[in-house]
Amino acid sequence: MVNEHPIHCVAAGDIFRELQPEQRAEVDQSISYSPYPAGKVFHSPNEYGEQLFLLQSGRVRIYKLSPEGRALTLAVLEPVTIFGEMTLVGQWMHDSFAEAMSECVIGTINHDALYKIFAAYPQVAICFMELMGQRLRDMENKLADIAFKSVPQRLATVFLNLAGVPNGQTNAAEPPSVMRYTHQQLAEMIGSYRETVTKTIGEYREAGLIRVEGDAVFLTDLEKLQRLANRQ
Q1: How large is the average pLDDT for residues 175-193?
Q2: In Å, how far are 49, 123, 138, 197, 215 from 212, measured between CA atoms?
Q3: φ and ψ at residue 82, rounded to 5 degrees
Q4: Residue 171 burial by CB count (10 A; 0-12/13-18/19+): exposed, middle or buried?
Q5: Residue of higher predicted confidence among 187 and 111
């Protein structure tokens, strides 16, 4: 099975958020939305890209594969956000895989239409640049985690990121939760092995850091998890 590195869950990336309702309605005329099943691959490295993808619902993961088949997860995307943006800043070639993790609704808009929107509404171009900058910062943080953090630290970071817990938050009224991934999926997210993640999850549960119920993992001790992730 492939190994992956720590992920960050990227949300709130709607580049059209600054538009007025009538402007958004005009933009939506250029976007075509369709439902897709889990496992759908939207683009692959070195594939020519003529459109930008807009995630309306569901989850999409962005990852790369080494020649040996090892995977590096760059991000898990949540709605509303975009992906496939690298074709706008390079030679119109994708540099990664994009795969649906669940059933999702995806919109597409071609490059020519998007450039016209940028020209007509500079605030959209600014939002696009802000999102690109955030993803660059996320990648820098990811590389630091890979270099300096242990498996328990990386797993704590993943849980906190997936739960969308702000830095320093320790007094939530209810414990935040994340979707329950398999131990293998978690191992692939942090560049480890299933057995190591299973052991770490057991240690977390014994220490009262998490509680697993049904399809969710509740982060029951944010302060300790944040200390473990070196956030405090």
Answers
A1: 85
A2: 41, 42, 27, 14, 8
A3: -120, 160
A4: exposed
A5: 111
Residue found under tokens 């590096």: 72
**Which pair of structure tokens corresponds to residue 117?**
């929107």
Contact status, residue 38 vs residue 101, Cβ threshold 8 Å: yes
The per-residue pLDDT for range 39-72, each reduced to its tens digit, is 999 999 989 888 999 999 999 999 888 788 877 7
The pLDDT mean for the chain works out to 87
Q: Token pair for residue 170?
A: 């320790």
Among 97, 59, 104, which residue's Cα sits nearest to residue 77?
59
Model confidence pLDDT, tens digit, residues 6-48 = 444 444 578 999 999 999 999 999 999 999 999 999 999 989 8
The DSSP secondary structure of 191-229, one letter per residue, reads T--HHHHHHHHHHHHHTTSEEEETTEEEE--HHHHHHHT
Q: Residue 61 corresponds to which tokens in the numbers above?
A: 């993961």
Residues 45, 47, 51, 53, Cα dihedral to 10°? -30
